[in-house]
Amino acid sequence: MKKKFVAAPPQELSPYRHFTRQEWAALRADTPLTLTIEDLEKLQSINDPISVEEVIAIYLPLSRLLALYVAATQGLFKATQRFLGAEDGKMPYIIGIAGSVAVGKSTTARVLKALLSRWPNTPKVELITTDGFLHPNSVLEREGLMDRKGFPESYDGSSLLRFLSEIKAGKHHVEAPVYSHLFYDVMPGKSISIDRPDILIVEGLNVLLPNKPGKEIPFVSDFFDFSVYLDADDNDLERWYVSRFMTLRETAFRDPRSYFRKYADLNDVEAERTARDIWQRINLRNLHENILPTRARASLFLTKGQNHKIEQVALKKL
User: Fold this and answer.
1) Over the stretch 259-302, which tens digit does the pLDDT of each residue have?
2) Domain extent for 31
3) CA distance linking residue 138 with residue 269, whole number of Å
4) Which alpha helices (H) appear in the chain, and where do they start and end?
5) pTM (2 decimals)?
6) Contact 186, 134 (CB under 8 A)
7) Are 93 and 164 spatial neighbours (Cβ–Cβ below 8 Å)?
8) How many structural domains comprise the chain?
């Protein structure tokens, strides 16, 4: 009797390579740690602790990978210049960092900036957040969008695209607006100047979001050479958000100038109830409607566990 052929079960196909924490940490190789404990204390955000071990296991391998990518891109750019006989100057390498409120984007962005600026081929690294490109509160109030702050429609997308276009073109002294978390608003007349960095890190909630169908304009992510998505379980994100809110109630909210001064005198029960309401009504909704669906657009995503430590890494295959 002829033996019946049974096909082997197909292997899982994925555009990503997946790593455990231990597997990713091994890719550090001999990359030296250039940050001290004092450096880390300055870089971390409220309720987003980061240890030396976390930097060694996760961020040193990532900085090594990015240094290789940047060097390769710089080499390709120089080769293209020689081919064209052009003298355009350097083109900055742009890294996008996306993820939910309270997931730790700011700490990740600052740690990467510090590490990458210590590589010899990228001494000039700049960081901006897309908060500066939010519409002013006066506009949001007029349009009835204050409760949708952080949603895509609350940003001045045209200004952000123009800024990134000028950065990518190698223009000198490109101005970016400044946002104040104390006043919870864009600061009129204030800006920072970005002058042809080797790397620009752009951190924001919706930086990987595609445009709406029918709009033939670039995506923000079209200007990125690499992108990182920070991921975590919804319950952990809510817990971290509430914890941060409770800490701010005892610190920044007590500043008489703070937009959130009204929350400073809430008792513990009222404060926690308020924080959970804001999370459920605004931040969780934004996460599921706009932010989480963009995860698959990232070059790499980092998945955090309950204690804020990154447990899994997924790197998109080239």
Assistant:
1) 999 999 999 999 999 999 999 999 999 999 999 999 999 999 99
2) 16-76+90-316
3) 31
4) 21-25, 37-43, 52-54, 60-84, 105-116, 137-142, 157-168, 234-250, 268-278, 284-286
5) 0.91
6) yes
7) no
8) 1
